[in-house]
Design goal:
heterodimer, A: 88 residues, mainly alpha, B: 100 residues, Helix Hairpins, elongated
């Protein structure tokens, strides 16, 4: 049993997928794959993932930690809310 | 070695599956899971382009994106739990108090 909503969603998603897939094919993408090490301890500014994570994006890592802590507190508050009614 | 086009098409397919779930599903938990599929499609693009350009930044952003996806899954589940306790359903057609 396919409802009208599912039919519309399938049509819209199929059209979007076709447009995206056609636009991806035929573009001169890079063809050589490089292996990225997890951590490069030989050079100070190495090309490893951990070098980039803890040096270039250290501020972003701290902000993600704050977001996770806030999400944990908010989730516990919402889940343990007693008596309060969400919405009208 | 997989060409980059295949990964992009796979990512577009994942995005389409997730978007269909967001548009057509009625259960809020299913919508949340479909949203995770959409996020993972974007992260797959990050990792693919990072691997082909030799720059680690894309994989770092993928790690940070996984953390953000975990945070919004936790918040979404808590909100739906609270809505279920007060309204008795998480059907997206019947929970209408955020629409005008």
């Amino acid at each position: 049993m396919i409802t009208q909503r599912q039919a519309f969603a399938v049509a819209a998603v199929a059209a979007l997928f076709l447009v995206m897939a056609v636009s991806f094919i035929g573009v001169p993408w890079p063809t050589t794959q490089h292996e990225i090490p997890v951590v490069n301890t030989t050079a100070p500014g190495g090309n490893g993932i951990a070098n980039s994570l803890f040096q270039t994006y250290a501020i972003a890592l701290i902000l993600i930690g704050i977001i996770l802590a806030a999400a944990m507190v908010g989730g516990v508050y919402l889940a343990k809310m007693e008596g309060g009614k969400i919405g009208p | 070695m997989i060409p980059l086009e295949w990964e992009l098409v796979l990512s577009a397919l994942l995005f389409g599956i997730g978007l269909y779930g967001v548009l057509a599903r009625k259960n809020a938990i299913m919508v949340l899971m479909s949203l995770e599929i959409v996020i993972n499609a974007a992260l797959l693009n990050f990792v693919a382009f990072s691997s082909y350009s030799g720059d680690a930044s894309g994989q770092v952003f993928a790690l940070l994106g996984i953390a953000v996806a975990a945070a919004d899954a936790a918040i979404g589940l808590a909100i739906f739990l609270s809505i279920y306790q007060t309204h008795g359903t998480v059907d997206m057609d019947r929970v209408r108090f955020l629409r005008w």
